[in-house]
Every structure is written in C-alpha cells, then in structure tokens.
Design goal:
Blueprint lengths: L1 H11 L5 E6 L3 E6 L2 E6 L4 H16 L3 E6 L12 H4 L6 E2 L5 E5 L2 E5 L14 H9 L5 E5 L5 H8 L4 E6 L2 H13 L9 E3 L2 H11 L3 E6 L4 E3 L4 E3 H13 L2 E11 L6 H12 L8 E2 L13 E6 L2
Parallel strand pairs: 3-4, 8-9, 8-11, 9-10, 11-14
Antiparallel strand pairs: 1-2, 2-3, 4-5, 6-7, 12-13, 14-16, 15-16
Helix pairs in contact: 4-5, 8-9
Length: 304
Amino acid sequence: MKARLEAIQAQLGPDTTAFRLIDEPDVTVDWFDGVAVLSTYADFGPEEEARWADRLRAECAARAVYVKRRPKEARHLSNVRPEELAPPTPLAGDSVDSLEVLERGLRFEIRPSNGLSVGLYLDARDARAWVQAHAEARRVANFFAYTCGFGVAALKGRAARAVNVDVSRKVLDWGALNTTKNRFEANPRDFIAGDAFDWLRRLHKKGDRFDLVIVDPPGFATTKGSRFSAAQDYHQLAARAAELLAPGGQLLLLCNVAAMTWADFDGQLRRALGPSALSGERLGASAVDFASTHPLKGRVVAAP
C-alpha cells in the first residue's frame, strides 16, 4: 500500500494531495493529505475495519482513518441511523474536523466526519480539469453543484461567470467557502439553492443562456417538486440542460451510476439530443488512481 501511495503521489505531483488510494469492488480508500476515508461495500465487521485502519496507519502514516459503510441494502433503508453508516469519530488516529487539500493547485475544504460525503468527489478530477481548460470568458452553469468543485474550476479557468445550483443551501455555503479559498468572489447570486429541474425551467423562462452547462446528478433524488432516476430520466435532464445553451455552447453531462453502462448512458443522450450527442469527447475517472471499471461516465456535447 505504501508503494502505491508513493507512486500516485509521484504521478500527480505536489499540487494534488487528494486521490483514490484503493479502488476495489468491496472497498475504497480516499486519501486526503494524510487523512484516509475507508468506504466498505460489504459487511466487513469491526475486526476487518480495524485491520484496514491499522494498515493505513502503519504503512501510509495516516494521521486519521474514517469509515463510511455503504452496503447496497443500506441505500434503501430510511431507518438506518446516519452515525452507523458514517461514524463521526475516526476508527484510528486523532479527530480531524476539517482540512484543506489541493487538486491541481485548487484548494478545497474536506470534512472527514461529515456523513458519507466529505466534500469532494475525486473521480471527477479530470472533468474539473477539462472545465478549467475550456472556461475562459464563458458563462458557466453548474447543476447539482454540491460543494461547487466545477464552479471553482471554471473561475480558475477565467470564466466570465459561474452559477452553482444545488438543492442544499448547506453544501452551497461550503462551495462558497471553497470559492473564497481560491481567492475568487463568492457572489450570493451565483449560489442558488433549489431543485435543479425547477431552476432549469426558471432560467430558461428568464432567457438566461450559458456557454457551458454542467450536469452531474445523483443516481436517484427526490425533492418536493420532482423525483429523478438517472437510469430512466437522464434524457429529460439532458434535454432541459440543452435549452439553456447559447449558440456555440457545450454541455458537460456526467453520470456515476454503476448499473448504467456506457451504452445505456449514450442511449439516453441520443434520445434527448440526437445522434450527434455521441460525437463529443468522453471523460471518465483518472487511470492514475481509479480502476478501469470505475462507473463515472461523462460526455461533452455541442449545442444541437
């Protein structure tokens, strides 16, 4: 494990301190500048979890190891207590309420004890780099923004504006903090709390148009106004997003649902946008630290 840690660090360089250390079907380890987040997708039990924590401490000098328990059945059990799935205290080491990590020089706040999601989805690193490289002078809209990683990348790439939309005000406030950490102004009008489908309609009705629209939804989501399943409804989302494009604009469409194959994903895009949707660049998780079977799928699509 130490050799893999050192190899990834050498490939990514000192300006990236957050990456996937282990990417296996039943277990992953995300590394955040010395803090390890162990995610289990099977019932490991306390002894196996402790063995992983001991290895990470001994071989990688992790200063803290947190566990996130993600058995498939727990995703559908509303009566599972959050603290059972994501204990707020570490398995080993000292508690770390928050820390700052680097991704290609961008700064992000990580909160290891913050439930199942700690602040940055590492598999989208290459997609964020694409946004940074293609954002100059463009108006960018980032839907399902979470802590605004794509918005920060767009501003770093000299976007004219980056609007972030998410149903949670809490994560948008976190995203505003990430924005200021990178020395950009966090204008309140660019952090919109609300249902993404509702805001896609509202922005379209207002006549707002963007040069780049980013859509990175969860696999399944329910709000007061909508119910969304990526496997069934992604085409509707893609079509709505396309309505916001200015002439010459682009969509960045992402999906991280393991049950959806590339063929399924492309079928949804073709249904929404026509055959030309499949001619755009494909983006996935970085081969430096993610398995080739990792489910992240992304396509860059030109305005129809």
